[in-house]
Structure formats: structure tokens, C-alpha cells
Amino acid sequence: MTGVDRKSRRSSEKKKKHIDPMQYVLKKPEEYRSRGIQKWAWNRRLAIMQKAFGYRFHNLDNLPLKGPGIIIANHTSMMDIPALFGAANTFIFFIAKSSLFHNPLLAAVMRWWGAIPVDRERLDIGTVRAIRKRLAEEQVVVIFPQASRVFSLSDTWKYPPESGALNFALRAQVPIYPCFIGDRTSGKHKQIICGSKIEPDELNPGGAKITKAMLDELTFTVMSKIYALGGLDYQVLMERPSEKELILSRTRSREHRGKHRELAKARLEAARLPVEPGDKKTGSCCIRH
């Protein structure tokens, strides 16, 4: 065998053994992410979110150690998912808008980290099947009922919650884990407060038929519990502002913007729940192994 033949044989063997990383990521994300630097970062995710990004976590013991389950939280920024990754003691899948998957490289990264694409304009049966499959595999899925980032608590009324998360929880009979994510206007910036687990029997104790009206009511109840973790009254935040405040919010003059901020601040103060003695959240948290 000549030297040229040996070289061609070696190159063909290398081609057979080579695995396209992106293709492997898309097909087997659970196996791929458990290797090398990803495994190192995953085991230290809580410390990374605390020290590098300044997050504080409360009541981490309320989060699941394994699935199935659905984590429901309010949505404040793009850092919500990394923060919940740091808080959870198990791998989590999350819902992301389908526009993030238009770029092939970004789509590969998103799927690698457990993202499930969803189309905001119409119901995609593929998304429903993907979520059901993850829950059937006893995985944990994160869903933001508001479906969009709410940058200021005074704008909460603009984003009525969707009832899809409660629909999945009741039909799959999996528990819900409420979490409140604080923003700058809440006074709890970069704080994640985890609430107690909500079993499906608590939501529908009589086993009544699941209807749209029931799901909407239960979604509002769960969102109220989430905002109560941050000391806020969700019902007050969901009330439509006065016409005067809406008009001021559309104007560009400095004087009107100042008045709008004052009215928004007053609405936020009105939504704050009274703090009972001994109910103050502490900033302590621990890294679980």
C-alpha cells in the first residue's frame, strides 16, 4: 500500500468517526451537555449567578429536585432563564419565541439549553407535543404566562397571562412551582423567591371538567400567588390605569413624563401588600450537591 493510499484511508476513517457537534446537540442535548466545561459550569451554576451576576435566591428548597413539574414565573428580562437555571437543582426546559430560532447557530444553542420554540401568532401543535413529551419524560418545564418581558411593574396590566401553563399542569397531572422574579421597580432587583408547590388536586379538587373559564380563573389565582411572593397585589397591578395616566404616558414632554412616573409610582405603592412580622424574606441560600 502506497503512502497516498494510507493517507486517504486515515482521512476516510476520521470522517467516519467525526460527529457534527450542532447535529449532535440538536438530537441528544441531555447527553452532550453533561460533558466537559458544560458539566463543570452546570455543577457551579448557582455560585456563578450569585457572584458574577449578583442574584439572590430565596426558598430554593421549594424547587423540584426532579420532574415532572412546571415552574411558572413572571417575566422581567432575558436573564430570567439563566437565573432559573442557577436556582433549579435539575435541568429545566423552557419556552422561547420562535423568532429566536431563525438563525441556525442561535437555534442550535437554544435547543442545546432546552428551549422549546413557540409561535406567538398561532397555536403550534408541535410545541404542545414537545411540552407533553418533556412532562411524560418526567422533566421540568419553565413557562412564563405573560409571554413577554414586563420591564416595569406598572405595565403589568398590558400583559394578561395566558392559560396554557395551567392547561398542561391539569391535563398531565403535574405540580406547579411558582417563582417571583424581582425587577428594579419592585425593590427586589435580581431576587428570585420560590413559593410552595401547588398540586393539581389543589387547583381542581373535584376533578371538574376543564374549561377555558376555569383555566383563566386558575391562571389569575396562580399569578396572584406569584406576585404575593414579592409583596405585591396582582389584582391592583392588573387594573387599567386612568385615562389621565394613559395620556401622560404617550406625551414626550419632560413635565408630563415626570407626572406619569409619579402616577405609576403611586399605583405601585398601592399594590404593595402589608408585611407581617416574621414574614420578611432572607437572602440566605445554599448550593446543593
Which descriptors would you attach to this protein?
single chain; 289 residues; alpha/beta; Glycerol-3-phosphate (1)-acyltransferase; globular; disordered C terminus
Give helix and strand order, one letter per element, not per position.
HHHHHEEHEHEHEHEEHHHHH
CATH fold call: Glycerol-3-phosphate (1)-acyltransferase
Cα-atom radius of gyration: 23 Å
**Total count of helical runs of at least 4 residues:** 14
What profile does the largest beta sheet have? 7 strands, mixed
C-alpha termini separation = 55 Å
The strand line-up of the biggest sheet is 1-7-6-2-5-3-4
Kindly give the count of domains.
Answer: 1
Q: Could you please describe the fold and organization of this structure?
A:
With 289 residues, this protein is an alpha/beta fold. It has a single domain (20-232), classed as Glycerol-3-phosphate (1)-acyltransferase (3-Layer(aba) Sandwich), CATH 3.40.1130. 45% of the residues lie in helices and 11% in strands. It has 14 helices and 7 strands. It has helices at 3-17, 21-27, 29-32, 36-43, 45-51, 80-87, 104-112, 125-136, 164-172, 200-203, 212-229, 234-237, 243-250, 254-271; strands spanning 56-58, 69-73, 92-97, 115-118, 140-143, 176-181, 191-194. The protein has a 7-stranded mixed β-sheet, with helices on both faces. Strand 3 (92-97), helix 7 (104-112) and strand 4 form a beta-alpha-beta unit. Helix 2 crosses helix 7 (104-112), helix 5 (45-51) crosses helix 6 and helix 13 (243-250) packs across helix 14 (254-271). The protein is globular. The protein starts with a helix and ends in an 18-residue tail after the last helix. Residues 12-29 and 280-289 have low confidence and may be disordered.
